Task: inverse folding
């Protein structure tokens, strides 16, 4: 279950912001362009996150927290502090640790490598080309919300949709929701996001 949770995590304001209704944007291309511009300018990124896993398997949401590091074009450090798990993605290399112990599982590595492409697509902005997802654009006063629906039928079997929310002020990702079904979803809220600060290369090679 621990690595099931970890793999799902790789594939995610104020009350006023939550309570506002969304409407379809009037100019999809203009929103796409400004978000893409921000992604293109992001050479590195660091952020904290909170995690909630909603499932019929649990009587209440499972909660966690951690941190994310990203560096163009293919480096990610995903650290779940609550579960004491770390995943390092550096080009084609994948490293994982669980409670301080390195994990070498060919099947898990294979799954993570497949999800790696999706993760990098989200962080780099490549998802905006709509190659793998169809995208619907919505907005309220403070946020843009993009709803991504998988085009690939195999992907659609385990991922119903992804909802991404970007603040209008910074155009950075604030919330990500991943829906396996209407009853099972993974919710991330990102905070303390810093862009284009120096990140030591060792963060993507060493636990």
Result:
């Amino acid at each position: 279950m621990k690595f099931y949770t970890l793999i799902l995590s790789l594939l995610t304001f104020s009350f006023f912001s939550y309570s506002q209704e969304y409407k379809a944007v009037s100019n999809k291309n203009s929103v796409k362009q400004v978000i893409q511009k921000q992604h293109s300018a992001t050479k590195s990124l660091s952020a904290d996150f909170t995690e909630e896993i909603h499932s019929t398997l649990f009587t209440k949401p499972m909660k966690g927290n951690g941190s994310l590091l990203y560096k163009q074009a293919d480096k990610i450090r995903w650290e779940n502090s609550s579960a004491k798990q770390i995943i390092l993605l550096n080009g084609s290399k994948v490293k994982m640790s669980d409670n301080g112990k390195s994990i070498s599982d060919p099947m898990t590595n294979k799954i993570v490598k497949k999800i790696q492409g999706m993760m990098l697509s989200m962080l780099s902005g490549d998802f905006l080309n709509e190659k793998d997802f169809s995208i619907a654009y919505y907005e309220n006063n403070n946020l843009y919300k993009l709803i991504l629906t998988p085009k690939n039928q195999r992907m659609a079997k385990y991922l119903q949709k992804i909802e991404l929310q970007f603040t209008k002020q910074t155009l950075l990702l604030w919330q990500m929701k991943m829906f396996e079904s209407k009853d099972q979803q993974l919710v991330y809220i990102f905070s303390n996001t810093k862009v284009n600060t120096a990140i030591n290369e060792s963060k993507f090679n060493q636990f």
Q: What stands out?
A: The mean pLDDT is 87.
